[in-house]
Amino acid sequence: MDLIKPEEISVNQSAYYNPTVPPVDVIHTNSVEVVGDYVYISSRHLDSVHKINWKDGSIVWRLGGNSKTDKDLKVKNLYGALNQFNNTISLKNLFSGQHDARILKNGELSVFDNGTTGNRNPRVLVFKIDEKKMEAEITRVVTGSSQSSSYCCGSARELEDGSWLINWGGKFDQSRATLANGVSSTVLPTGVATRILVRPA
């Protein structure tokens, strides 16, 4: 069985860590996807997704994260690492505070990137994984939210027609139904964000 190493845990990230409120949630797993004999786990406070062998507990690979491990996937297509706020490219925060890591029908991996510590708009990244080469190629980037980084929550589902249904997370676009790339976030007239999303016909 493999273990997550202490150096992968960044409890001092101010976006996540509050030393006055015990216990400290150093990993914060927020999605688990079981496919065959493997489990895909998104850990918000590690800024990473792990693929784990269900039978023996070994880590097959890790995507993201802010420290080096021997299980890291090398990321190809750096367009997906572009920070649109300052036009810089950095793999340090490939995704941050992410949620909802899912295996799509074509075998690719989608991740909702909150952008929590990356200083960017929330988005969805889609990766094609080559386990023989230990590489992850960014094949798609789905954007559209006008909000700044999303501090919590969020999900993304690709629909049958190829469009996406996206919950942009803990903040929402400040309009009743702001449409972008075929997705919509809804805010009630009281200003309270709903968790029900609609898609234009």
CATH architecture: Beta Barrel
Question: What is the class in the CATH system?
Answer: Mainly Beta
What's the domain count?
A: 1
Largest sheet: 5 strands, mixed
Poorly predicted runs: 173-201
Number of helices: 0
CATH topology: Thrombin, subunit H
Average pLDDT over all residues? 74
Helix content: under 10%
How do the strands line up in the largest sheet?
A: 5-11-10-9-8
* Percent of sequence in beta strands: 35-45%
Class computed from helices, strands and strand pairing: mainly beta
Q: Categorize the overall geometry.
A: globular
What is the element layout, followed by pairings?
Elements (H helix, E strand, L loop, with lengths): L28 E7 L2 E6 L4 E6 L5 E6 L9 E3 L5 E2 L4 E2 L9 E5 L5 E5 L9 E8 L4 E8 L12 E4 L5 E4 L9 E4 L2 E4 L15
Parallel strand pairs: 5-11
Antiparallel strand pairs: 1-2, 2-3, 3-4, 6-7, 8-9, 9-10, 10-11, 12-13, 14-15
Tell me what the structure shows.
It is a single chain. The protein has no helices and 15 strands. The protein is an all-beta fold and 201 residues long. The protein has a five-stranded mixed sheet, with no helix packed on it. The radius of gyration is 17 Å and the shape is globular.
